[in-house]
Amino acid sequence: MPAWLPGIFWMAGSTLCLLAAVGVLRMPDIFTRMQAGSKASTFGLAFLLIGTALDIAEGATVARALLIAAFIMLTTPVAAHAVARAAYLTDVPLWSGTVIDERRLDQERVAASVEADGAANAEPGEPPLGDVR
Amino acid sequence: MPGVAEVAMFVMSVAIALAGVRMLLGPTLPDRVVAVDLLGTLTVGLLVVAAADAGQRAFLDAAIIIALIGFVSNIAYARFIERRKP
Fold it and tell me: What is the ipTM of this complex?
């Protein structure tokens, strides 16, 4: 294995991590920031781990690198989903250029159909179906 | 003449500083949580490069612990944001 090979992976990984940080700093609202940060940092970390595993080519080091990579790739989407859900439910403002908000459209459609279905047989005081919080 | 590992560690430090700026700017609490999560991931990356540069295998164990704590704290922050009174 050539000695410069880990350096290639380290530079690729650190550049991706820098792009993730720039995305989190510059993107206009929380959801775009989140997708820039979580994806780029996951791939950047994977490259850094490959570089270190090639540089210290021992069984224990490679096993730890694989462990960190598997853990990060499993948990980053879960954490991003949890924070995005919390942010949406607490009405964090979307970017002014947002094209579509499908969940809001869905809620409005359900609320309208409940209203049309009949104020007659609906239980009074029942919460509308659209509010699934 | 710095080696390539030093250059990579410098780039990671710049990335950590940028994430820290977003954490200070906010403007909402979920924004800060996202920035702190990115800080944790970038710290793991810095430790991974430093482990090879310094020849310290123990840095990788520290990186595993930081990744674990970062995930659990992120889930806890998300539950807190959902349940607190606005």
Answer: 0.89
